[in-house]
Amino acid sequence: MATFFGEVLSVYSRAVEEDDDDLDDENEDEQIHREIEEKREVHIAWCPEVAQSLEDSGSNKLQCSDLIIAVGTNAAGFLSAYVLNTESWDAVGHVSLWNERSRGSSRQSIALLPGEPACLFYRHRDNPAVLVCQSTCYIAEDQLFQWTEKVFGCLQKRGLSVMVLSDSPVAEYKTPDYLYGSAVPFLRSLKSSASESQALCPALEQPNILTGLPAAVLSHCQVHQIPAVLYQCYTDVISPDSITMETYKPALLCLSKLVKGQPCCPVLNPR
Amino acid sequence: MAARYDRAITVFSPDGHLFQVEYAQEAVKKGSTAVGIRGKDIVVLGVEKKSVAKLQEERTVRKICALDDHVCMAFAGLTADARIVINRARVECQSHRLTVEDPVTVEYITRHIATLKQRYTQSNGRRPFGISALIVGFDCDGTPRLYQTDPSGTYHAWKANAIGRSAKTVREFLEKNYTEESIATDNDAIKLAIKALLEVVQSGGKNIELAVIRRNQSLKLLESKEIETLVTEIEKEKEEEAEKKKPKKST
């Protein structure tokens, strides 16, 4: 469309339909989309013993009474320091996936380098129904559902209870009151309706919401009526930080019930 | 700590990524290969063509499109996105002729396409185009040109380049084999394009589509017979080379 001043504006009419008989090309577009989707699939790799137990179980599910998931470096650090610090834990599996932020190792071995973002599973030797998952890699929004379905698909639903520890920046915490510096870091909790556990910290107030893996897990537990409790730690430090990790200590009350006989369970220091 | 940096593509992640642009580049990497060669008096575009079923009618290539009489482009990536870019480019070519009374230079139309692509990396609610393009043609002064654009909106001039699925392999081949001698004649340039594609295309000539523009002529698509003839020539030349290299068994 030529205008009065000689400039030419592009005007597009939605009434004009492109002739759409190039099926070949559409097939290629579909193929491209499909290949990208396949690349984004979530894969769980279990160690041989666990893979064998899954096969032997008949229903392809593991017996699991407690699943503890740590999302974020501080939650994972807390578990490493206070729970996984003994010899009684075995690395039994990992989740590998690819997205733009987790280019993901195609390495098949379970032993990933320390510090590398990953999603690892540990099982207690004396009580193999207790599973711990440390997730420090970024899981994209389109992969969260797959992750949850695949992980929970390996576990028996009956008798299962879940605890999630998750890091969050305090900048995302919404409150009408002013947050004093000394109040940070702090814990907030959220439970599924099936959970009967006592609150160890105040519940997460509205309008705050969970996102990402913790939200996906809790949603799954709510839908499938699995008792689940989540502890979200709001902190002002992005990197791994010991004070932030210590904030998760109240969760040890529940954890120490599971892992009796832990020689190095630290004495709780109530805040 | 998962704050979202790819919801609105205008936002940089803390480590400087534009993830939507990177997703688009993934789509390009999965598209069929295209190669472009700049000769002395000719520019050549070749694309990998999917195999056609036995009884299916041979379709005219859709991946090489004329933008004007003297400019054409090939793309790798999502065809649906390419259509939009091609239409806008075609309109711009004619608009330029009417306003400025001159045909576009290859660089001008490449810059127009690149600017369009860049705009889509900085607008809320839109995603980048999932295509890379090879744009070839001749300017008014008779200079042959080859440009490449990518989803981020950057563009560069090339002597020879490849985009799409096996771009790396083809580019390495071109780096080894693109010399002044190898593109001395028009035919040499065409053969170089075919040789480059043969590196990565399965089952040879029938999976290649080729287009050329010669100086002061418009886009010409090669017929499959012509391509087959050239492929046969190339294979013969290869055999002759191999023969020469064989150690002589004489005393």
From TrEMBL, chain A:
InterPro entries named in the record: Proteasome_assmbl_chp_1
GO BP term, example: proteasome core complex assembly
GO molecular function, one term: proteasome binding
Keywords: Chaperone
One term under GO cellular component: endoplasmic reticulum
Keyword RNA-binding: no
Similarity-based family: Belongs to the PSMG1 family.
The protein, known as: Proteasome assembly chaperone 1
Native source species: Salvelinus namaycush (Lake trout)
Gene: LOC120057004
TrEMBL record, chain B:
SUPFAM superfamilies cross-referenced by the UniProt entry: N-terminal nucleophile aminohydrolases (Ntn hydrolases)
Subcellular location: Cytoplasm; Nucleus
Primary site of residence: cytoplasm
Span of domain Proteasome alpha-type subunits: 5-27
Keywords of the record: Cytoplasm, Nucleus, Proteasome
Similarity remark: Belongs to the peptidase T1A family.
Protein name, as recorded: Proteasome subunit alpha type
Species, as recorded: Salvelinus namaycush
